[in-house]
């Protein structure tokens, strides 16, 4: 009897996973996940920001003691890569976030679990033996936010990541065109006990944006309050402006994810790669900076570290791999990326993460 080779084994890199996922997923779901805001200019820049940088190859260095090990928030990480929070992963595979968590654990890679996960934060936590952080989407009721972060702590999460860049969605024309809707049976299970939102009537001179959705959005005061109340370190995700980064540091956030939400919110904002050097300069060498948006190759991870990131997050690549082959495919994808990073470090003559800096890139000092 001949055994069928799983589809994912033909994937040689993360772009292959994207291609295979496009074939495997319903059109509307693929378009929703792939798509960016409006004209997708930021989405494209998230890629070109990497492609436009060149790495200096350095020859004849001894790299036989090489390692991708690093420390983030005092925790030992095997590699400076983490799974980004990606909502509703059951859209990709019936095993959802649990499969992603198993894969991450197998590869010794951490995971941020979304408020909008399609399996409960407790179920996912049980499968995660690596760094596990809970991503919070701010909810209107302060007490309810507190309940969520206490619940996360009880479930074993070690940090809270509060996402601040998407109080309202960007203009998502691609998803609209594809008539994307959340499939039946998939829901935000973590929020089942959320108090109902007060119903609102708008007068003709009121805006559904300013007086509607944005009236539920957090402000700096709310985040400061959250940081004071949280017994876990708080990281702020979705910061691009250096002044906001500095403010986040000053109010006590333990780190920042420099991110434009995968180009999915406001279009034409800069890529994280374009702004991270200025942010690193302001916050100092020791502050924790993670970065995401467009990571597809080991060389991308290397370039992000060279410009000042301590680690990077993967959004769409985990969803694509999950869609192609569940947990084994996510593990395979992560292994590919880690090995690509190792190859890059070897050929750039940088055996350790601490050796990677802006001098490794052409025209950067
Ligand atoms: C389908 C999808 C769902 C996402 N869901 C969340 C979420 O629930 N919370 C969050 O903070 N970010 C979310 N993000 C943003 C990712 O965490 C991450 O910032 C972004 O995807 C990184 O870019 P990349 O996809 O190019 O790797 C989502 C992104 C995608 C593509």
Structure write-up:
The protein has one domain (8-56, 72-182, 215-357): Alpha-Beta Barrel (TIM Barrel). With 365 residues, it is an alpha/beta fold. Helix 12 (298-306) links the parallel strand 9 (288-292) and strand 10 (311-314). Helix content is 39%, strand content 12%. Bound molecules: flavin mononucleotide.
Layout of strands and helices, then pairs:
Layout: H1 14-24, H2 27-34, H3 41-51, E1 70-72, E2 75-77, E3 81-83, H4 96-106, E4 110-114, H5 121-126, E5 132-137, H6 142-154, E6 159-163, H7 173-177, H8 208-212, H9 220-229, E7 234-239, H10 242-250, E8 255-258, H11 272-283, E9 288-292, H12 298-306, E10 311-314, H13 316-347
Parallel strand pairs: 3-4, 3-10, 4-5, 5-6, 6-7, 7-8, 8-9, 9-10
Antiparallel strand pairs: 1-2
Helix pairs in contact: 1-13, 4-13, 10-11, 12-13
Bound molecules: flavin mononucleotide.
Flavin mononucleotide binds at residues 33, 46, 84-87, 114, 116, 135, 163, 237, 259, 261-262, 292-295, 313-316, 319.
């Amino acid at each position: 009897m001949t055994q069928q080779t799983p589809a994912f084994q033909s994937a040689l890199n993360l772009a292959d996973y994207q291609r295979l996922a496009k074939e495997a997923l319903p059109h509307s779901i693929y378009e929703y996940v792939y798509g960016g805001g409006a004209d997708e200019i930021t989405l494209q820049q998230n890629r070109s920001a990497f492609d436009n940088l060149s790495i200096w190859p350095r020859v004849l260095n001894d790299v036989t003691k090489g390692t991708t090990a690093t420390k983030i928030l005092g925790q030992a990480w095997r590699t400076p890569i983490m799974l980004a929070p990606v909502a509703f992963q059951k859209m990709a595979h019936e095993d959802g976030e649990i499969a992603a968590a198993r894969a991450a654990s197998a590869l010794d890679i951490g995971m941020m679990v979304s408020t909008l996960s399609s399996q409960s934060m407790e179920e996912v936590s049980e499968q995660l033996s690596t760094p596990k952080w809970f991503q919070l989407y701010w909810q209107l009721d302060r007490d309810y936010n507190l309940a969520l972060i206490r619940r996360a702590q009880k479930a074993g999460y070690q940090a809270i990541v509060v996402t601040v860049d998407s109080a309202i969605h960007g203009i998502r024309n691609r998803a609209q065109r594809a008539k994307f809707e959340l499939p039946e049976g998939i829901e935000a299970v973590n929020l089942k006990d959320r108090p109902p939102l007060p119903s609102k009537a708008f007068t003709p001179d009121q805006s559904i944006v300013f007086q509607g959705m944005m009236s539920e959005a957090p402000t700096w005061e709310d985040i400061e309050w959250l940081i004071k109340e949280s017994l876990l370190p708080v990281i702020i995700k979705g910061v691009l402006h250096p002044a906001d980064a500095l403010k986040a540091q000053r109010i006590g956030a333990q780190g920042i994810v420099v991110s434009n939400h995968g180009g999915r919110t406001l279009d034409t904002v800069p890529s994280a790669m374009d702004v991270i050097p200025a942010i690193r300069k302001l916050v100092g060498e020791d502050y924790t900076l993670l970065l995401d948006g467009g990571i597809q190759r080991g060389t991308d991870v290397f370039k992000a570290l060279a410009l000042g990131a301590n680690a990077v997050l993967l959004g769409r690549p985990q969803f694509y791999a999950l869609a192609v082959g569940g947990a084994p495919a996510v593990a395979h994808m992560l292994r590919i990326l880690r090995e690509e990073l190792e190859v890059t470090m070897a050929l750039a003559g940088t055996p350790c993460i601490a050796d990677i800096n802006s001098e490794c890139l052409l025209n950067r000092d």
